[in-house]
Amino acid sequence: MLAVLKKEFKSYFSSPIGYIFIGIFLAMCSVFFYLDVVAYGNTNFEYMFYSVTTILTFIVPVLTMRMFAEERKSGTEQILFTSPRSITAIVFGKFFAATLVLLVAELFTLIYFAILMYFGEPHIQTALATLGGFLLLSMAYISFGMFASSITENQIVAGILTAGVFVFLWFMPNFNSDLFGFSPINVFASEFPSGLISPEAVTLLVSFSILFIILTILVLQRRKSVK
Amino acid sequence: MIEIKNVTKKYGDFVAVNNISFQVKDREIVGFLGPNGAGKTTTMNMITGFIEPTKGEIIINGNDISKKPKKAKREIGYMPENVPLYLDLTPREFVRYMAELKYVPRKERKKEVERVLEEIGLLEVQNKLIRNLSRGYKQRVSMAGAIVGNPDVLILDEPTVGLDPKQITEIRNLIKSLGKNHTVILSSHILSEVSQICEKVVIINKGKIVAIDTPQKLENATKDDNSVIVTVEDKDNNMKKIKENIKEVKEIEHIVDNEDGTKQYRVVAESDIDIRRKLFEELPKNNITIFELKKSETTLEDAFLRLIDKDVNIQEDNEKIKKEKKKKGKGGKK
């Protein structure tokens, strides 16, 4: 797993994708930091994350769309899947590489927290809960993006499918409020930024990730016998 | 040793590979021959565990590729068709990544990468992006990825396609030298290549094995007649009469008129008789001057075409028989 993780993480930064992802993420964070925190003159670091989560909808696909689609299109999956590494190890390697890129981006937001520390006394536990929840939400999203990338050889299709499903999950509770508890982004927003960590929320986000990691593994294993 | 036992691969109703079995012994170089679409790549993909056979077993050095994929794959170095590579890596990075994937221990990794880069001749481009390399170098990078970690078995899918003649000779020599301490399966549709490098040839057509043998034996086995090619100057057109003068001659076939006025004929004789002496004595008597006289030799090329033709004919015959049976069956009912 480590071999794949290392190579994938490096390749995010040997292509523009890693820089574009972190750049856009931080640019948007700055905007929301100003609009949601500075403009109101408060020291609530977590407020900006209500808005920041929404941009995950559009930037996670950038990170995940090439994961398997590109390998399939260029044929390099032949090298990867004939190496003595299991499909599970390859999938986890790629998943954690993307997660690591996101984590790097997320750690940069600590700068905003430092700014708030300088001017006031932000609540550290709430900030940590928010960052933790945000990571879980991102992992759930990455797992779905990875799954979408494994079912097509066209990166664009994978990207649009991923963003489309995220938009749907976001507005799903508007159609039927019973579905609120199944919408990762809404579950995140209703709990973590207020410093709450409920087992239900964690379970939803973690099981969402696990579900799509398993589905990705199944898709790739099945393609071996259909291909 | 590679054992392939009754392997079949189906895509829906289409049978890509139909119940093939063969063995490759240790330190043997086997050529896998067949026209395009014969099932070569499908078979290689199954041997390397990239795709799963519908039926049958593939055993690499005692490990079943479907049941113990990790162990079996550690024994294999694969160079896929069309040399897929990570274009945004350099050859050095690529080989290092492959070494890592193949569990080359961290301590030995650097040395191993160095050895492979040197052996394949990649040192001068080791730090360029693979994207910017020429086809020949890309081919070598792919080969380097296959041999790193020194796997026992090498599977090379059309390793010389798209190379210039000098590169082809280099790669061939490389494969020959690798064959000294590796088991190699190599696919190709270039026959001269296979007869030069391989000790054994497996000919496959439409998913079925048509022949397995050494190149020489295949050439001999398909040598159907005892014929001689003569180039002559024959002003009086006496060549046709020769058949009557020499009783051992079965047939004389005109092949081509050369620009210098000479003509080329194929003379077929009764089997087991060397007709050359007779021709040499008889032709001048008929006012025919011999410019060239040689035994016609079947090349592997002929063997290959003949085997595949035979296979197609048999299949067509079978289909005819089936159709006729059906007709008869229908007629009977009426």
Describe this structure in words.
The complex is a heterodimer of chains A (227) and B (334). By secondary structure, chain A is mainly α. Chain A has one domain. In chain A, 80% of the residues lie in helices and 0% in strands. Chain A has eleven helices and no strands. Chain A has helices at 2-14, 16-38, 47-64, 69-74, 77-81, 87-108, 110-119, 124-150, 155-175, 184-191, 199-226. Chain A is globular, with a radius of gyration of 18 Å. Chain A starts with a helix and ends with a helix. Chain B has 334 residues and is α/β, with parallel strands linked by helices. Chain B has two domains: 2-220, P-loop containing nucleotide triphosphate hydrolases (Rossmann fold), CATH 3.40.50.300; 226-295, Alpha-Beta Plaits (2-Layer Sandwich), CATH 3.30.70. Chain B has helices at residues 40-47, 69-74, 91-101, 106-120, 135-147, 165-178, 191-197, 215-221, 239-245, 276-285, 300-333, and strands spanning 2-11, 14-24, 29-33, 55-60, 63-64, 76-79, 153-157, 183-188, 200-205, 208-213, 226-233, 249-257, 263-269, 289-295. In chain B, the strands form three sheets. In chain B, strands 6-7-8-3-9-10 form a six-stranded mixed sheet, with helices on both faces. Chain B has a four-stranded antiparallel sheet with strand order 2-1-4-5. In chain B, helix 3 packs across helix 4 (106-120), helix 3 runs parallel beside helix 5 (135-147) and helix 8 packs across helix 11 (300-333). In chain B, 38% of the residues are buried. The A-B interface holds A 3-4, 6-7, 11, 14-15, 74-86, 224-225, 227 and B 45, 48-52, 54, 69-71, 73-74, 76, 78, 80, 82, 84-89, 97-98, 100-103, 145.
Question: Can you give me a brief rundown of this structure?
Answer:
By secondary structure, chain A is mainly alpha-helical. Chain A is 80% helix and 0% strand. Chain B has a six-stranded mixed sheet, with helices on both faces. A four-stranded antiparallel sheet of chain B has the order 2-1-4-5.
